[in-house]
Amino acid sequence: MQRLKRPTQEDVARLAGVSRATVSYVINGLARGNISISEKTRRRVLEAAEQLGYVPDATARALRLGTTKALGLIIPDIRNPHFWETVDGAWREARASGYHLLLSSMDLSAEYGREIFEELSHRRVDGLILMGSFIEQSDEAQKILLRLRKQRLPIVEISDHLRDDHVDQVVSDYRSVTHEVMELLFSLGHRRIGLVYGVARSDLALDRLEPYRKCLEGFGIAFDEHLVVQCGPTIEDGYRATFALMNCDPPPTAIVAINDLLAIGVMRALVDLGRSVPRDVSVVGFDDIPQARYLVPRLTTATKDASLLGQKAVQLLLKRIAVPDRPYECVVLPARLIVRESTGPAPRG
Amino acid sequence: MQRLKRPTQEDVARLAGVSRATVSYVINGLARGNISISEKTRRRVLEAAEQLGYVPDATARALRLGTTKALGLIIPDIRNPHFWETVDGAWREARASGYHLLLSSMDLSAEYGREIFEELSHRRVDGLILMGSFIEQSDEAQKILLRLRKQRLPIVEISDHLRDDHVDQVVSDYRSVTHEVMELLFSLGHRRIGLVYGVARSDLALDRLEPYRKCLEGFGIAFDEHLVVQCGPTIEDGYRATFALMNCDPPPTAIVAINDLLAIGVMRALVDLGRSVPRDVSVVGFDDIPQARYLVPRLTTATKDASLLGQKAVQLLLKRIAVPDRPYECVVLPARLIVRESTGPAPRG
DNA sequence: TTGTAGGCGTTATCAC
DNA sequence: GTGATAACGCCTACAA
Question: E strands within chain B?
Answer without folding.
Answer: 70-75, 100-105, 127-131, 155-159, 168-172, 193-198, 228-231, 254-257, 282-286, 300-304, 330-333, 335-338
